[in-house]
């Protein structure tokens, strides 16, 4: 709960009165602390992703973590790998199948990871519409992994994830990150990519791993040029 109303308005690029209206409507996750509203960075990002809203790089500032270089989407996908024809009849069985396919360091408890992912789903679906979901861990540091990874899975048949648009999910991006800062960055990179027609097009038609990585690299290059650096900033 590190953000104020002013912070969230700046991050989402909307007037403060819109933030208050969304709070009154119960649409925006907020907490009342000593007569003021506070917000959790991860929850605000997830809320924006579910509504396909762009976010400002301000979301990553001031969280107390070292400003180390952030990974590109292509790097995270390459580290996470791809799965095709994943079998499962519901959220739990699908997540178990995906976790079993992950390339994880020795010592990572896969059963614990499944339970944490299911607990996150219980808080609210990670489906973002159009048959796509981004299951992830709300507190990434508990996994003790050394580098971020995004594993892309295509399901053998669509599964109900409680998506906001009501469509069953057939594409999953499972995001794993070593720190909260990287976690927010990876989720924002995915949100940006899923708004891009080229990336989404090759994704929907089940392009090859190489095609998907090439599209991700194209977006990474565009982002670097627009931000004027090599950190992979997020267009606001």
Can you put this structure into words, describing what you see?
The protein has 236 residues and is α/β, with parallel strands linked by helices. It folds into two domains: 5-39, no CATH class; 73-227, Mannitol-specific EII, Chain A (3-Layer(aba) Sandwich). It has helices at 5-12, 16-24, 41-50, 73-80, 91-101, 110-123, 180-193, 197-204, 209-227; strands spanning 31-33, 36-38, 82-86, 127-129, 132-133, 149-159, 169-176. A five-stranded mixed sheet has the order 3-6-7-5-4. The longest helix is centred in the last third of the chain and has 19 residues, at 209-227. The protein is globular. Residues 229-236 have low confidence and may be disordered.
Any chance you could write out the topology, listing elements then pairs?
Layout: H1 5-12, H2 16-24, E1 31-33, E2 36-38, H3 41-50, H4 73-80, E3 82-86, H5 91-101, H6 110-123, E4 127-129, E5 132-133, E6 149-159, E7 169-176, H7 180-193, H8 197-204, H9 209-227
Parallel strand pairs: 3-6, 5-7
Antiparallel strand pairs: 1-2, 4-5, 6-7
Helix pairs in contact: 1-2, 3-7, 4-9, 5-6, 8-9
């Amino acid at each position: 709960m590190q953000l104020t109303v002013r912070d969230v308005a700046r991050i989402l690029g909307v007037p403060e009165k819109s933030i208050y209206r969304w709070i009154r409507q119960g649409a925006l996750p907020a907490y009342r602390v000593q007569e003021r509203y506070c917000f959790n960075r991860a929850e605000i990002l997830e809320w924006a992703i579910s509504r396909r809203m762009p976010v400002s790089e301000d979301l990553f500032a001031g969280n107390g973590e070292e400003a180390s270089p952030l990974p590109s989407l292509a790097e995270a996908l390459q580290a996470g790998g791809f799965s095709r024809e994943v079998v499962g009849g519901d959220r739990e069985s699908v997540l178990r199948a995906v976790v079993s396919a992950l390339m994880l360091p020795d010592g990572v408890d896969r059963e614990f990871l499944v339970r944490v992912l299911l607990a996150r789903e219980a808080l609210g679906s990670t489906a973002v519409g159009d048959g796509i979901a981004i299951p992830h861990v709300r507190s990434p540091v508990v996994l003790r992994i050394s580098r971020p990874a995004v594993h892309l899975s295509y399901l053998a048949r669509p599964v109900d994830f409680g998506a906001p648009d009501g469509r069953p999910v057939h594409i999953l991006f499972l995001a794993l990150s070593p720190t909260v800062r990287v976690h927010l960055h990876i989720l924002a990179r995915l949100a940006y990519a899923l708004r891009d027609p080229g990336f989404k097009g090759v994704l929907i038609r089940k392009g090859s791993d190489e095609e998907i990585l090439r599209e991700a690299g194209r977006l990474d290059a565009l982002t670097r040029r627009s931000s004027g650096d090599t950190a992979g900033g997020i267009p606001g």
